[in-house]
# Entry
Amino acid sequence: MPDPLARWSRRRFIAGTTTAAITAVAGCSTVVNWIADKAFKDVNIINELNRSVSGRITVTDPDRVVRLDEMFELPSRDGSSNQEDGNIEFYPDIWTTTGSYEVTIALRDTEIDGVNKSSETVTLANTDEEMLLVSLGASEVAAPIDFRVGESFTDIVSD
# Structure
């Protein structure tokens, strides 16, 4: 009999564990933030849609140096695709200095509520602590592509 855990990638494990932990300790922000701090990196993209989505993320630092220019492909949030990766993409070591970073998401072959590209200038005051979460299709926010910066997970989701 095949091992059911063998199909779990690191991303899926982290996303699943984080979701379970958040559910289990709802209201306990210290534990939630500790777990999220271990899982999330400088820049994170989460697909909240019931379909897979792909595109490109570009991050340019205050000195106009491109710090990130990567294609991404994220399965649906319900895990119904055959991909073994989770619906979150993590990018470490992006922030170099405090200041304003230009972040652009360009979706490939899809739109979310009529939007296929969005840019945002995010300002960082503490590059060691702050993280960016880009949500694609989150129902809790007005924008189809939403950019949020904070020092903790609860900072980001409580805006």
Observations:
- The two ends are 46 Å apart (CA to CA).
